[in-house]
Amino acid sequence: MDAKILIESFAEFARSKNVDRPTMIRILEDVFRAMIRKKFETDENFDVTINADKGDLEIFRIREIVDDNSEDIWDFDKISFTEARKIEPDFEIGEEVYEKIELEAFGRRAVQMARQTLIQRIKDLEKDLLYNKYEEQVGEIISAEVYQILGREILLIDTEGNELILPKAEQISKDRFRKGDTVKAIVHRVDMINGNPKVILSRTSPVFLERLFENEVPEVYDGLITIVKIVREPGERAKVAVESYDDRIDPVGACVGMKGSRIHAVVRELQNENIDVINYTENLDLYVTRALSPAKVSSITVDQERKRISVFLKPDQVSLAIGKGGFNIKLASRLVGFEIDVFRELNEYDDEDVALNEFVDEIDAWIIEELKKTGLDTAKSVLALTKEDLTRRTELEEETVDEIFRILRQEFEQ
Question: 205-280 falls under which CATH superfamily?
Fold first, then answer.
């Protein structure tokens, strides 16, 4: 293989990988200089000139002519007067000899190895470029096409044909994709595994929801509205606390849009995730009240030391505060940074009811605490639920729930 074919084939491969010309030349020169060092032990007195467009390569060995009896005759950058005269008869001592070295002088095996090294260098460069490209985009939304669906992940390709990964854990539970679908997600992280970059995407991250708001709400994108905090149960429910330093802007109204036009686009992308947008405030009581919306809170007691909040509501508001699957109260707790305990306000007709604490001799204390966390603090409030509802709310074992019902019903039968 001559130099022209080698360089042209490399240049074509490099261009197909979008490698710029200066980088291409630098790689070629590095590889050829490595060949020189292997054959001549040094490349300090060699000049390498490459024209990748034409496939031209010129390698010159530069040496100073010294007397045949000189002590320097064995230096790598010196040549004897006799040897120099063999190259050019009219050379004189003290002049420099530019001796052209043809690629064939390195041997066929060295040239083949150089070709493989060039291709490997481009592939390594391609990996570095891919890593750096997506490392800079961590936290940003991208769109990619599904090309393979596996059990634990979905493989996608970007516009340049790079492979991206959307793991099962980073997918919304309601996501259903087919080959060829376009998927929106954020770049979650970029891992380097055995020298290969792996770009991990996410649709469950709170950052994904934040970026969707930036896309749909100009005031958020421009910084006029600040998203203070986002908490999510992906595909089910999310709470977004927002604030504006401009009194003329209603942050909640701007995020929701006229007749919900702005937030509907976000909800659709998140598989109909229920999104509550609330005004952030440093007034903790008011913040908790807003976080538990749509439930109406009657009163609040804060225990700063234990980071717990007791919220009291009318009986018909308890289920709203807890929400389907307990998502509302879980998200509210995460949003305000306190554990929230929900309690029913006792009415005059509750005189016949019995507080769960009265059953501590028959029901384990931790079970009573689990029930109270979901707003169930009396016997009748528990008995008002079905077995399925109580199991779902508390995640207690069915046998435990059966025993609770038996103990509580026995109290009223007596």
Answer: K homology (KH) domain (3.30.300.20)
How many angstroms separate the Cα of 45 from the Cα of each of 78, 111, 113, 189? Answer: 10, 21, 23, 46
Q: What class does CATH assign to 3-132?
A: alpha beta
Q: How many Å apart are CA 405 and CA 313, to the nearest integer?
A: 24
198-244 pLDDT per residue, tens: 999 999 999 999 999 999 999 999 999 999 999 999 999 999 999 99
Tell which residue, 203, 317, 321, has the closest CA to residue 271: 203
- Residue 219: name the closest of 257, 178, 173, 254 by CA: 254
Q: How far apart are CA 137 and CA 200, in angstroms?
A: 11
CA distances from 297 to 271, 332, 335 (A): 30, 13, 17
46-51/141-149 β-pairing: unpaired
DSSP string, 131-196: HHHHHTTBT-EEEEEEEEE-SSEEEEE-TT--EEEEEGGGS-TT----TT-EEEEEEEEEEEETTE
Domain ranges of the chain: 3-132, 142-204, 205-280
- pLDDT at residue 368 in the model: 86
Q: What is the pLDDT of residue 346?
A: 61
Per DSSP, the three-state class of 219 is helix
Q: How many helices (H) and strands (E) does the chain have?
A: 15, 15
- Which superfamily does CATH assign the domain made up of 142-204 to? Nucleic acid-binding proteins (2.40.50.140)
Contact 313, 321 (CB under 8 A): yes
- DSSP 8-state assignment for residue 355: B
